[in-house]
């Protein structure tokens, strides 16, 4: 039996914009967890040379300090989202955040590369459960409309801030010692756990019909895990190697098996009908391209500034600060902006700013100055993420039933992590091929430029998809507000529902 989570009768009203201190506290706790989850995606980057030197790790082993987290995070998000729906969002959030704190502590204390990678994987697993649980708590606590848009804008802006400030904080902490990049999240996570126990609304569990899609969980999780592992390892093994091609064939077979299982089971892990809502499908594609392009760009920028221009970790942290600062400062204003313009209009503008930031960086050379090259891209990055990141999360959960908010949250977070892994692997391959193994400044630039072209092209694909969404939204705005629809979520009887056609 599954359970339907219902908010406690004494929970405060969340339909308006005047929130109680407890409700604000709840949002702050969820934002802290989201900030930490996003922070860990990028924060270890600047610390890698110091880690490799102290623990005597080879380059191929060192990459798993990053990839281990992405593997755990991206591979288990679908399972984490569904677990939040079935087992209780509050319960899953508390357990997973506690595990995240414990893994952070272990990672900061170990002296063995294998244990460090294992700790990073476990942190990723914790994030895979806290991210969809936290997002679905917000979407089921705040009423759809201005209140939810305001909450989601603040929440997702905190995630974007963590994502963009990761390199900044990494540079600052690495200048003291690389272990602080692992230890810093520990007290924040523990404080968030303590406050969450007190502040998160206690649900009332009511019996509901349903079951556990064990086969779907196995095939779905295995598909995403193997895909992330394959693209991460492809750089070392070779994209056309028998190992990589064979692994991709297995991924395709697992994906086909997963889709077959989900289309036939009565209570699927991923109800495929959720993608019939165009805004949800488009939001996942945009999330994949947006964060994938940024992940590849961040990697190029790190190599260029540190290896070619010789910047220190602290210089790099300060140089990248404008993007993260702009995103963080924009948080209070994004809710009203989303209400005024709608996500369908904001997404193309945000993707255009991101693509512009990547394209401007194509002007890099051996002696580029900060005001001419780096600063304009950082400012455009700040604008792009401030507009696009909250919008894509709102669009991905808008109009989804409460009992599937964990699923919708897991899907968009999976798109974010898999996009990062895939595009980063592609950018890495282009850097290696373009430089042809040379160490000269010219050889390095010959590797960086094709990678920048790739990330710009990926961002432009996201811009195209977002623009199509804006066009569809404009056409639907003149159509009738709602029509009866019949969805077929499982092998059982059709369930009548009404879908609001106007998207935010």
From TrEMBL:
Q: Which domain of life is it from?
A: Bacteria
Name of protein: MFS transporter
**Spans traversing the lipid bilayer:** 23-49, 61-80, 92-110, 122-142, 154-174, 180-200, 212-231, 237-261, 282-305, 311-334, 346-364, 370-389, 410-431, 451-472
Q: Name one GO molecular function term.
A: transmembrane transporter activity
Please state where this protein is localized.
Answer: Cell membrane
GO term, biological process aspect, one:
response to antibiotic
What positions does the domain Major facilitator superfamily (MFS) profile occupy?
26-474
| Keyword terms, alphabetized | Antibiotic resistance, Cell membrane, Membrane, Transmembrane, Transmembrane helix, Transport
InterPro entries (UniProt xref): MFS, MFS_dom, MFS_trans_sf, Sugar_transporter_CS
Presence of the UniProt keyword Transmembrane in the record = yes
* Main location group: membrane
Pfam families noted in UniProt: MFS_1
| Topology term for the membrane | Multi-pass membrane protein
* Gene Ontology CC terms, in alphabetical order: plasma membrane
């Amino acid at each position: 039996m599954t359970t339907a989570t219902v908010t406690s009768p004494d929970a405060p009203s969340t339909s308006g914009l005047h929130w109680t201190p407890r409700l604000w506290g709840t949002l702050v706790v969820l934002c802290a967890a989201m900030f930490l989850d996003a922070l860990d995606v990028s924060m270890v980057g600047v610390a890698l040379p110091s880690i490799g030197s102290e623990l005597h790790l080879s380059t191929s082993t060192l990459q798993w300090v990053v990839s281990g987290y992405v593997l755990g995070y991206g591979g288990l998000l679908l399972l984490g989202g569904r677990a939040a729906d079935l087992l209780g969002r509050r319960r899953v959030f508390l357990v997973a955040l506690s595990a995240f704190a414990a893994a952070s502590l272990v990672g900061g204390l170990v002296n063995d590369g294998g244990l460090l990678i294992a700790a990073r994987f476990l942190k990723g697993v914790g994030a895979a459960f806290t991210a969809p649980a936290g997002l679905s708590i917000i979407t089921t606590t705040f009423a759809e409309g201005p209140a939810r848009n305001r909450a989601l804008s603040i929440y997702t802006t905190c995630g974007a801030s963590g994502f963009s400030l990761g390199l900044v904080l990494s540079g600052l902490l690495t200048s003291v010692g690389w272990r602080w990049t692992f230890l810093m999240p520990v007290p924040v996570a523990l404080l968030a756990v303590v406050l969450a126990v007190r502040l998160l609304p206690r649900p009332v569990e009511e019996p509901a019909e349903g079951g556990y899609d064990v086969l779907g969980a196995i095939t779905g999780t295995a598909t995403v895990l193997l895909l992330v592992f394959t693209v991460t390892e492809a750089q070392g093994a070779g994209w056309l190697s028998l190992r990589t091609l064979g692994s991709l064939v297995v991924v395709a077979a697992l994906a086909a098996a997963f889709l077959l299982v989900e289309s036939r089971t009565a209570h699927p892990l991923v109800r495929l009908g959720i993608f019939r809502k165009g805004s949800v499908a488009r939001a996942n594609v945009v999330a994949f391209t947006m964060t994938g392009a940024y992940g590849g760009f961040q990697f190029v920028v790190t190599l260029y500034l540190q290896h070619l221009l010789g910047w220190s970790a602290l210089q790099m942290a300060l140089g990248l600060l404008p993007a993260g600062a702009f995103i963080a400062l924009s948080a209070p204003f994004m809710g009203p902006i989303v209400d005024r313009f709608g996500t369908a209009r904001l997404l193309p503008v945000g993707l255009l700013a991101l693509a512009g930031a990547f394209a401007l960086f194509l002007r890099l050379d051996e002696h580029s100055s900060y005001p001419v090259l780096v600063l304009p891209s950082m400012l455009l990055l700040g604008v792009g993420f401030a507009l696009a990141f909250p919008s894509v999360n709102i669009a991905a959960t808008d109009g989804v039933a409460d009992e599937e908010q964990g699923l919708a949250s897991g899907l968009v977070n999976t798109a974010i992590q898999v996009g990062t892994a895939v595009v980063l692997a592609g950018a890495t391959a282009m850097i290696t091929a373009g430089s042809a193994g040379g160490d000269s400044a010219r050889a390095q630039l010959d590797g960086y430029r094709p990678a920048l072209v790739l990330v710009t092209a990926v961002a432009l694909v996201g811009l195209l998809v977002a623009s199509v969404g804006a066009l569809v939204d404009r056409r639907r705005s003149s159509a009738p507000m709602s029509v009866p629809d019949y969805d077929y979520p499982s092998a059982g009887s059709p369930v009548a529902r009404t879908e609001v056609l106007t998207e935010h």
